[in-house]
Specification:
54% helix, 2 strands, alpha+beta, Arc Repressor Mutant, subunit A, flat
Length: 68
């Protein structure tokens, strides 16, 4: 998946700041613009408007686990 994102010009692999054996991903300018556009569309879609505060917390927790 990372190869595809990199090939599309959305991310780039960079050296880890403290561990030379690792790489981190950074959004490119194009990736940052797309991410902001997606955030704006998601917010304006009101997709999660019916979720109460507890449901929003659960969803946020799940999304954070996915990003690890």
């Amino acid at each position: 998946m990372v190869d595809k994102l990199e090939h599309a010009g959305l991310v780039m692999r960079c050296p880890h700041p403290t561990d030379g054996r690792k790489r981190v991903l950074e959004l490119t300018d194009r990736g940052s613009k797309l991410w902001k556009e997606l955030q704006n569309r998601l917010h304006s879609s009101h997709l999660f408007i019916d979720l109460d505060v507890d449901d929003q917390r659960v969803l946020l927790g799940l999304l954070r686990r996915l990003s690890l």
